[in-house]
Design goal:
Blueprint (H helix, E strand, L loop, with lengths): L2 E6 L7 H4 L5 H8 L5 E6 L7 H8 L4 E5 L5 H12 L4 E5 L1 H5 L11 E3 L4 H8 L10 E5 L2 E4 L27 E2 L2 E6 L2 E3 L9 H5 L2 E3 L2 H10 L5 E4 L8 H13 L6 E6 L1 H6 L1 H9 L2 E9 L3 H6 L6 H13 L3 E8 L6 H13 L4 E6 L7 H8 L25 H15 L2 H12 L12 H30 L13 H23 L11 H32 L18 H29 L8 H28 L9
Parallel strand pairs: 1-2, 1-3, 3-4, 4-5, 9-12, 12-13, 13-14, 14-15, 15-16
Antiparallel strand pairs: 5-6, 6-7, 8-9, 10-11
Helix pairs in contact: 2-6, 8-9, 9-11, 14-16, 16-18, 19-20, 19-22, 20-21, 20-22, 21-22
């Protein structure tokens, strides 16, 4: 008998792990296949495990199996390194190792399991020689060995997941403030969307029989909402109808269900959608992805824009909560295309929206295309979380992709947008469950919204630093918008100028008694000097602040005109604003003199004049400089 520890790594994927806290269904299924062995599941996403406790657990086992997505692979490798200190056999499985079996080349990894792991991992634990185990990759004396793929298993022959091994984490598994259970009724997807890695991982499409689906639901008697995690639950709608009939007949529609579906499945079978609603399948995730037919065709989605509108109408009419996925920056999408997608998301009756940047996961057609066309800028897989763009496209840079993603979330989840959405839910009898008696769900959503905002602001700061080639400080001033930053610096400049002018009053004596020409010259010179200094300093500070990620803007970028160095732009603004100040001051003085009010040319007028000039010069210079550097009109200095 072997002692086995199955681990879900602690690194949480931004947004994905903040919305729904799923139990590690894959590990639970693998544990079910290990009869005769001592098995423990350690879900490090559900609870915080200190390093000393992790080391203690690793020192007591023979084999550690770790599941990992692409952005959490670094966390998984770190656990493997710790495990090797105790001579533990390390096995990696899940999506990322299946897409990139060469992960086994890391010295801390002994074996990689490709694809589904129940039977494969059982062979490993049973001690079979690596060369005889299908579906694994390992390193031998001759190099990396990739054994042939394992034949696909009949899902009905697999033991049900070991839910008892995660019962201590049950309070952590939640969605919409309710206790969450997870269920897989099918594996794979027969469709081949260019950006999707599912066909590469599962290869083919297999289903669990409706009877066994119902048996699994009955095993989750404590769950208030059951997430059916199939990538396309609605692939076979006649099967869906049969499952719904059984749920209703067995009176299992006393809990909520969430499912994933393609748009065309909804459109082609509205009668089944009505039955899904009666079975209490109240949350349906659909992939909208794009707002133009050309983009949908490039992704091989095999649906139309009209299908999207029709699917949303059908779901809304049945009182089903619509959770929609959108991709920011599809290949060949322009800025206007993404803007159209953002507008469409607000126009449709969508309740919850995901906006993910285009991400080239290894093994996908998108990854191959991006590599061939040199579009990938970031090869650190820990950042492949669909929130931080690792690539650019033909029309959009990485920073533009991130700005558009943030803009989409701001538009959809803005305060008043959420107020209106909550009002809509409260008036809909079928969606009222989101609000009524669900204080915990409301609090968790509000926490998620605020956490996401801070995450995106931090990510924006770091992305600007990367694209501008500047060092990012861990702690920086509060991120501001161009207008707010410009107004703030303008006020500061005005106050400093006013204080300096007041302190200089004593050196002028009786100002109004000075010769008129001297007063005029002093006013003009002071105006020019203040405008020049404030414009130069404001330009330098604004460009530096933007390049450190302290200024956030989602305005559309414009093609760069003439490019300037930082010094050239600062001096240019100094000259332009001093010239403008000279003209404005001269007009003011001339007007006063011609009106016979020369006696009004007092020191008090000077104080007001230079303070106003300092404010305006700083505000305008800051604002135009921010947009100049955003539009790449400012040359980057070599670091």
């Amino acid at each position: 008998m072997s002692r086995v520890l199955l681990i879900n790594p602690p690194k949480k994927v931004p947004l994905l792990d903040w919305t729904l806290r799923y139990p590690p269904l894959g590990l639970m299924s693998i544990a079910a296949a290990l009869d005769g062995h001592e098995v423990e599941i350690l879900d490090m996403k559900a609870i915080r495990v200190k390093g000393k406790e992790l080391r203690r657990k690793l020192s007591l086992v023979d084999i550690v199996g770790i599941t990992t997505l692409t952005p959490s692979v670094d966390s998984a490798l770190e656990i493997c390194r710790t495990a090797k200190e105790y001579g533990v056999l390390t096995v990696l499985g899940g999506v990322h190792p299946s897409l990139m079996p060469q992960t086994v080349e890391n010295p801390e990894v002994d074996i990689v399991v490709r694809g589904e792991g129940e039977l494969t991992f059982r062979d490993i634990v049973d001690g079979k020689p690596p060369g005889s185990i299908p579906g694994i990759s390992y390193v031998s004396g001759t190099g990396v060995v990739h054994n042939p793929d394992r034949p696909l298993a009949n899902l009905d022959t697999l033991a049900p997941p070991r839910r008892d091994l995660v019962s201590r984490y049950q309070k952590q598994y939640r969605a919409f403030g309710r206790r969450l259970g997870a269920l897989s009724t099918a594996r794979g997807c027969p469709h081949k969307c260019s950006f999707c890695c599912v066909p590469k991982v599962w290869q083919g499409y297999r289903e669990l029989s409706p009877t066994e689906v119902i048996n699994e639901i009955k095993r989750m008697d404590k769950a208030e909402i059951i997430a059916i995690v199939d990538d396309n639950f609605c692939q076979e709608m006649r099967r869906v109808e049969e499952i719904c009939d059984l749920i209703i007949a067995e009176r299992l529609n006393d809990r909520l269900y969430s499912v994933f579906s393609r748009v065309d499945s909804i459109v082609q079978h509205p009668e089944v959608v009505a039955k899904m609603a009666r079975a209490n399948m109240r949350v349906v995730f659909i992939g909208i992805e794009a707002a133009t037919q050309a983009a949908l065709d490039r992704m091989n989605k095999k649906m139309t824009i009209e299908d999207i509108y029709r699917a949303c109408e059908i779901l809304e009419n049945n009182g089903i909560l619509i959770w929609a996925g959108h991709i920011i920056g599809n290949l060949d999408d322009t800025y206007d295309d993404v803007e159209a997608l953002i507008k469409m998301s607000k126009k449709l009756p969508i309740d919850i929206a995901d906006f993910t940047v285009i991400t080239p996961y290894p093994g996908t057609d998108l990854y191959r295309f991006a590599m061939e066309n040199d579009l990938i800028d970031e090869f650190d897989f820990t950042e492949y979380c669909e929130c931080e763009p690792p690539m650019h496209t033909a029309h959009l840079s990485r920073i533009e992709l991130l700005e558009l993603e943030i803009k989409a979330y701001m538009k959809f989840y803005g305060f008043w947008a959420m107020v209106n959405r909550a009002r809509k839910w409260s008036g809909n009898r079928e969606k009222r469950w989101l609000l009524e008696g669900n204080n915990r769900g409301i609090r968790s959503f509000w926490k998620f919204r605020n956490k996401s905002a801070f995450y995106f602001l931090r990510t924006y700061k770091e992305m600007v630093g990367k694209t501008e080639g500047t060092r990012i400080r861990k702690h920086s001033p509060v991120i501001s918008t161009p207008i707010l930053y410009s107004l703030t610096t303008g006020i500061v400049a005005a106050l400093i100028t006013l204080l300096l002018t007041l302190s200089a009053r004593q050196y002028y004596g009786q100002y109004s008694s000075l010769p008129l020409l001297l007063i005029i010259a002093d006013l003009l010179f002071s105006s020019v000097l203040v405008a020049f200094i404030t414009a130069v300093v404001a330009t330098w500070l604004a460009i530096g602040s933007y390049r450190r990620g302290w200024i956030f803007s989602v305005r559309m970028r414009r093609p760069a005109g003439k490019r300037w160095s930082l010094l050239e732009k600062s001096l240019l603004n100094g000259v332009l604003f001093s010239a403008a100040a000279l003209v404005a001051a001269w007009i003011l003085v001339l007007t006063v003199v011609i009106s016979g009010l020369s006696s009004q040319l007092t020191y008090g007028l000077k104080e007001v004049l230079v303070t106003v000039i300092a404010f305006l010069a700083t505000c305008i210079a800051s604002y135009v400089s921010i947009h100049a550097v955003r539009n790449e009109e400012i040359k980057r200095t070599k670091s």
